[in-house]
Amino acid sequence: PGKKRGYPGHEGIEMALIKLYKATGERRYANLAKFFIDERGQQPNYYDLEAIERGEEPAPYWAALYYDREAKATGRGEDLQPFWEAPNLGIGAYTWAPVKTIPYEVPYEYNQAHKPVREQDRVVGHAVRATYLYSAMADVAAEFGDEQLRTACDRLWNNLTSKQMYITGGIGPSKANEGFTLDYDLPNETAYCETCAAVGLVFWAHRMLQLECDGRYADVMERALYNGLLSGVSLDGEKFNYVNPL
C-alpha cells in the first residue's frame, strides 16, 4: 500500500526474488515476487500509465518504440511504421506498412499483460518471457500455497503441451515475435523454437514437477533439454545459436 504499481517488462526477476528469499530467509523478497505476479495484467496497464505520465499517448508510444528498434536494425525509411497483425487473435507479430494505413494496437500479450495471470488460459507472446513468468507463478504458488495460481499454471501447461509444443519440445514458432501464435500453428521449416525458450521450458517443467510428482513434467523437461537446449550449443561449448527449426 502506498507504493508505486508496476512489474518488469521482461519477466525473470520474480524467480530470482524467490531464490533470494530462500537464500536469506527474508520474506520481503518473496512478497515482492508475489506483488509482481499479482500486478501483471491489471488494468489500466502499468506501461500505458507510464507513457501518459510522460505526456505520450500509449498506442503511438508503443508503435514508435518498435519502429525505432526495427528502423535501427533494418535501415528502413521514415515512410514505414510497424503494426501488429491480428492482435485480437493473439498473433502479436509485427510487420511493415505505409504510415497511417493501419491502426496500431498495443500488444499486451507480448509480455503476458493482457489479463491478470490467474485468468490466463493460453500461452501467448514472447516465449522466453512467458516461460519465465509461468516458472515464477509456480514458485509463488508453492511458496504461498496459492491454489488459484496453481490452477492457472495447470491450464497454461495443458495449453502449451497439447496445442503449442513441437514433438521435439520446441516452443514459439514465430520469428517475428520470438514466441507463440495460434493453437496448432507449428510449421516445420520456419520453426523458430528459440534455444532460450527451451531453457525457460526446462525451468517451468522442473517447478511443475516440484508442485506435483508427475512424470509428464519430467518427460517435457527431458525433451526440451535434449532437443531444444543442447541443440543450441556447439560441441565445443564455444558457440551458440537461437533458432532450432525441425
Automatic annotation (TrEMBL):
Residues 2-246 form the Non-reducing end beta-L-arabinofuranosidase-like GH127 catalytic domain. Pfam families: Beta-AFase-like_GH127_cat. GO terms for biological process: carbohydrate metabolic process. This is Non-reducing end beta-L-arabinofuranosidase-like GH127 catalytic domain-containing protein. It comes from marine sediment metagenome.
